[in-house]
Amino acid sequence: MTDAADDGGGEAISALLHETRQFPAPEAFAKQANAQPGIYEEASADPEAWWAAQAENLTWDRHWDKVLEWDLPFAKWFVGGRINAAYNCVDRHVEAGRGDKVAFHWVGEPEGDNRTITYSDLKDMVCKAANGLVELGVKAGDRIAIYMPMIPEAVVAMLACARLGAPHSVIFGGFSSEALSGRILDSDCRVVITADGGYRRGAASALKPNVDEALERCPDVRSVLVVRRTHQDVAWTEGRDIWWHELVDRQPPEHEAQSFDAEQPLYIMYTSGTTAKPKGILHTTGGYLVHTSTTHRLVFDLKPETDIFWTAADIGWVTGHSYIVYGPLANCATSVMYEGTPDAGGRDRWWKIVEDYKVSILYTAPTTIRTLMKWGEEFPESHDLSSLRLLGSVGEPINPEAWMWYRKYVGRDNCPIVDTWWQTETGGIMISPLPGITATKPGAAMKPLPGIGAAVVDNDGNEVGDGEGGYLVLTDPWPGMLRGIWGDPERYRETYWSRFPGYYFAGDGAKKDEDGDLWLLGRVDDVMNISGHRISTTEIEHALVGHPSVAEAAVVGASDPTTGQAIVAFVTVKGDVVAVGEEGEALVVALREQVAITIGPIAKPRQILLTPELPKTRSGKIMRRLLRDVAEHRELGDVTTLMDPTIVQMLDDQMNAPGAADEA
Ligand code: PRX
């Protein structure tokens, strides 16, 4: 095991061993559930046939010849099939007479700033945007960067790209210009779709200036399409920049969708790995759409005619791609899409949205649940939440306390909770209870979904027994799986398929309890999970050493009661730099800013400790395990292998000194 698994994992396992509560699905829910007992057996009898049956729910221009071609680790699903993702998400519902059905109840952050978008509206918007992109010269295969706030045009932009077979690369609006340019260059995007700004925490924040700055490093970008959202003043580059409303509004609302090969790239989504450079995870069309629509229907028990579905996430992350855009739209769902933060306009904003729109399914991250919990139950209690019938959690392990609070105060002890484990790489949900079937346990993701193979293995790749912990692996190919890392097939093989031959290594620790149910325990590599956002320690170290005063940096993830993990950085400065007193404090401020500029504000360390030296082994390796002990105020582990054991003690004293409070 890596040293990360040694400390964090062990403690988590023993804490979980005491959790024995179980919540069977309510009988009334079970009776009407989309997933009925027998589904697991049916899928495992012939997984390919089972996935093929799910694929029949989509509209294909040409039926596939073969369900799966598996040349480990390279998969092709629905080989020979032809399909258009946007047609499946929009047009076919309109053609089936459901054009008046609401696709999105969009809720802007400023109160009263709402839009209702039907499937017919969405079809017109997507067709116009597709025509606009064609006018800009976009062709199938071209990569398009999308850097936008949570507004309907963001979804429209994604679908317009999908319609043209032009893979989109959505970059979260909270990333800095440097992070943006890195991603634009890596996949050689020639067109960027953005907005003047968006509303966040009660204020208009700018996006276009970040794009302008990023593009100084991206000379090949020829067009920037800008949605007017906040009416801020923006700088304008003639010949390159064009307003969305000037280009798109004048286009005809008809556009004939062409079909593409099932393996046509649909999108690239950058995510942090264990190196400083984020990986461009590639997803393709047919299998991904089958996976997201199937899991959306089964895990969330979606009833398209009556449910109001709300994934409270940003489209800048994979959760938004799969469960705001592709899964729900392929299923003709009515979704709520909310632009802002949970406390914009008051700490009951979310509950107001649930009440106003009669949300029946709510899907969010544990970090948000913990924040809502901290604010107090009086906020959910002051609204009528009786429309809710199912709750979901994603992005990080959910602690039993937060699970119970979610169940009691949001779900009124009456809604099944689905704790869904998956990753950017998996494309869709992989491990989760099925509501109506699974008796849930607070904090357990329970079982691989039908058609999915997962196991927990030890260091040598042997499956562990019930009651034991190890590494989570996926044992079989699945339709939504990543097809590679953009531009780097070797890195794909090396990262995911070499640690345990024949298996996909997820990077997570897991435990099988006495009943064989799965508990996910967090990452076992150098990837941190901060508020459900994936950030690598190396990426932040790289940002810190980019500052002229810094000699060396070591970053660890320390457990945090609200954000799951928090970033703690240990930094040594160059010889002539003063790192004490006011100058030291100013340097810490500058370093946090340096990280915000290089990656984005979400990556700012909670704490930065300036130190004359880092604890190293005699061979010069930084002892991160000890730094994690320091950061988590734990008793220090074995220090005998250290070159100079006094350093770590000194850091520990510094960490525990009065006034060493969190800076974030
Ligand atoms: O460590 C796992 C954690 O989030 C990682 C994937 O992050 P990302 O690619 O950003 O995708 C997040 C949204 C799908 C995983 O390796 N994770 C995700 N869901 C859970 C989880 N950990 C525990 N329980 C979950 N339900």
Verbal overview:
This protein is of the alpha/beta class and 664 residues long. Helix content is 33%, strand content 23%. It has 21 helices and 30 strands. The strands form 8 sheets. An 8-stranded mixed sheet has the order 12-11-8-6-7-14-15-23, sandwiched between helices. The chain has a 7-stranded mixed sheet with strand order 5-4-17-16-18-19-20, with helices on both faces. Helix 8 crosses helix 9 (208-215), helix 11 packs across helix 12 (318-330) and helix 20 (624-631) packs parallel to helix 21. The protein is globular and about 75 Å long. Residues 1-15 have low confidence and may be disordered. The chain binds adenosine-5'-monophosphate-propyl ester.
Strand order of the largest sheet: 12-11-8-6-7-14-15-23
What spatial form do the alpha-carbon principal axes imply?
globular
Q: Helix coverage percent of residues? A: 25-40%
Main β sheet profile: 8 strands, mixed
Structural class: alpha/beta
Beta strands, count: 30
Strand residue percentage: 15-25%
Q: Give the low-confidence spans.
A: 1-15
Overall pLDDT: 93
Count of helical regions: 21
Bound molecules: adenosine-5'-monophosphate-propyl ester
Ends: how far apart? Answer: 31 Å
**Rg, nearest Å:** 24 Å
